[in-house]
Amino acid sequence: MTVTSPEPLASTHRRFHLVGKLASFGVINTIAAAICVVLVVCTVMAPILAPYDPAAVDVLRPLSPPSTDHLLGSDETGRDILSRLLYGGRTTLGGAAIIVAITALIGTTVAIVAAWVGGSFDALVMRATDVVFAFPGLLVAILLVSIIGPGLVGPIVALTFAYTPTVIRVVRSVALREVSMPYIEALRIQGMTGWAVCLRHVLPHVMPVVFVQIAVGFAYAMVDLSAISFLGLGLQPPASDWGLMIAQGKAAMLNGHPEQAIAASLTMLLAVVAFTLVGERIAQLLEGRRS
Question: What is the rounded CA–CA span in Å between residue 125 and residue 169?
């Protein structure tokens, strides 16, 4: 009698499970996820992959077309466009990641505390979010950046302030429903503190909603962060940033050298579409798991 080893069967089961996961994610979304991974890897490894220093100026070769020396050409001061593109992803993708992380942390904390405390504190939080919602998020960010000053810190603080009310409202609605559950009242009667109840029981139930907000909000943060740099209120030259590269490439485009503007615009478009598709698909999967 032949005995089949369980290890090949387990390995086969894991492969089928992985294939099933990829199939549920969808072909287009899988391609988008691969693009996101490539962009993140290229951004993280920019010091290794970049052929030149992104700030190195070559006055002898300004606005050179794509060649073996400069694969995407050079800008008006002779800086390598590919190197600036790789380093520019660090500020665009990294800045967006910082924004959504801080927004999720602050928004989730305030939402859970408001739902738990209730009363006048909850009403005050909701009125404060109403005030911020009365103005477009990007407009609020531009106003705050004009006060804080240009750079990367100003836009991050401004966009965090603009995005946090959305997270507070969405997470609060789920937290309110969870706080009203009978088992929460039973935990109160047993003497469990409010912080323990919120951390051990309320927080795990609102985390799927928080992940949805992070996944969907990442692409919006990228666009708004680049828009602020495009307007000249974010990072300043000679810094590398996709929005700044698009703004600087406008003049060269009028002179018949669209390489920088096209490279930065296409990379930005590809990143936004890819992260949006992946974020929306993750949101759908998490929502399906909750239902």
Answer: 9
